[in-house]
């Protein structure tokens, strides 16, 4: 068989690449668009419409079942059934003020209110925003769930039925230096830091100390401890101590109560000027493990820097 060879002696007679692409997009001879005629496009459109309708319906159905059977007032798995129980149900500590969640530095010049770098008012406003958001007035429909509780007592039975012990920061700390009227100490060399325990459903402090959870703050290193001139703790009812703060056991357990207000303490620090001091605070009770310093279980850390410099 003789193979014929076509030779184009003129570029004008060579087929153009663009003509092939154009014919693929629309073939007028076979009336095809992108290689399919009208019937083929209709069939594939119908197939994918039915396919994605069924897929979407299946997803919505599963989501509806999930929402229908998932409890809205408590975690699905609690206690030993929770993944938290693998390493022990271990609440963590938190602190305020915290301008950014990734920033643990509190740096102020007590004589500068609005300085962009060292102004103390931004920390005062951060504390006020937190307190207003988390400790505002209890809604009227839940005021009946607030009960008066005695210190060092357990009210677990009442809390199982939606009750919560009263905790009003303005009343608890009105006789301390850590008040809004005193700018929480940020206009002095001795600022107050709010230290709180993160809420964990059903957690109850157990073992020593038997009246709740002690909170201890100190310098992170020996140098920090040397630079830290003094620490004072203010707990409920304005109780002042130089040894530790106390989160009273009457506030536990948290059972998702609408009227619940998590307790906290104020810690006032006395640090030297122009010296960075790293602080770590620990929750001290038998059933909170604070040995894991890498993950800060049962702990929180922040740094204080008080200066007479300006931006």
TrEMBL record:
Database matches in InterPro entries: Na/K_ATPase_sub_beta (IPR000402), Na/K_ATPase_sub_beta_sf (IPR038702)
Record-annotated membrane-spanning stretches: 46-67
Topological type in the membrane: Single-pass type II membrane protein
UniProt keyword annotations, A-Z: Membrane, Signal-anchor, Transmembrane, Transmembrane helix
Recorded GO CC terms: sodium:potassium-exchanging ATPase complex
GO terms under biological process: intracellular potassium ion homeostasis; intracellular sodium ion homeostasis; potassium ion import across plasma membrane; sodium ion export across plasma membrane
GO molecular function, one term: ATPase activator activity
The keyword Transmembrane is assigned to this record: yes
Localization, UniProt: Membrane
Domain of life: Eukaryota
Pfam families documented for this protein: Na_K-ATPase
Entry's family note: Belongs to the X(+)/potassium ATPases subunit beta family.
PANTHER family documented for this protein: NA_K-ATPASE BETA SUBUNIT ISOFORM 4-RELATED, SODIUM/POTASSIUM-DEPENDENT ATPASE BETA SUBUNIT
Protein name: Sodium/potassium-transporting ATPase subunit beta
Organism per entry: Brachionus calyciflorus
């Amino acid at each position: 068989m003789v193979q014929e060879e076509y030779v184009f002696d003129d570029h004008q007679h060579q087929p153009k690449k663009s003509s092939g692409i154009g014919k693929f997009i629309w073939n007028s001879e076979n009336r095809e668009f992108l290689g399919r005629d009208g019937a083929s496009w209709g069939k594939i459109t119908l197939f994918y419409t039915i396919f994605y309708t069924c897929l979407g319906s299946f997803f919505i159905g599963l989501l509806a079942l999930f929402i229908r059977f998932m409890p809205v007032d408590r975690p699905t798995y609690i206690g030993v059934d929770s993944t938290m129980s693998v390493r022990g149900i271990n609440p963590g500590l938190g602190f305020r003020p915290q301008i950014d969640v990734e920033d643990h530095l509190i740096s102020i010049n007590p004589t500068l209110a609005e300085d962009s770098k060292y102004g103390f008012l931004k920390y005062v406003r951060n504390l006020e925003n937190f307190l207003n958001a988390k400790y505002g007035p209890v809604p009227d429909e839940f005021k009946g769930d607030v009960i008066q509780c005695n210190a060092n007592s357990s009210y677990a039975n009442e809390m199982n039925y939606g009750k919560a012990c009263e905790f009003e920061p303005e009343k608890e700390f009105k006789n301390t230096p850590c008040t809004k009227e005193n700018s929480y100490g940020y206009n002095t060399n001795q600022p107050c830091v709010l230290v709180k325990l993160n809420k964990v459903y059903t957690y109850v402090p157990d073992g020593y100390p038997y009246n709740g959870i002690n909170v201890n703050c100190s310098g992170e290193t020996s140098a920090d401890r040397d630079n830290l001139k003094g620490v004072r703790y203010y707990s409920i009812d304005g109780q002042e101590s130089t040894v530790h703060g106390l989160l009273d056991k009457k506030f536990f357990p948290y059972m998702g109560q609408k009227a619940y207000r998590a307790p906290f303490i104020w810690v006032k620090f006395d640090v030297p000027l122009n010296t960075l001091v790293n602080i770590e605070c620990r929750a001290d009770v038998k059933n909170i493990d604070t040995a894991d310093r890498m993950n800060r279980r049962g702990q929180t850390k922040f740094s204080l820097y008080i200066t007479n410099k300006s931006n």
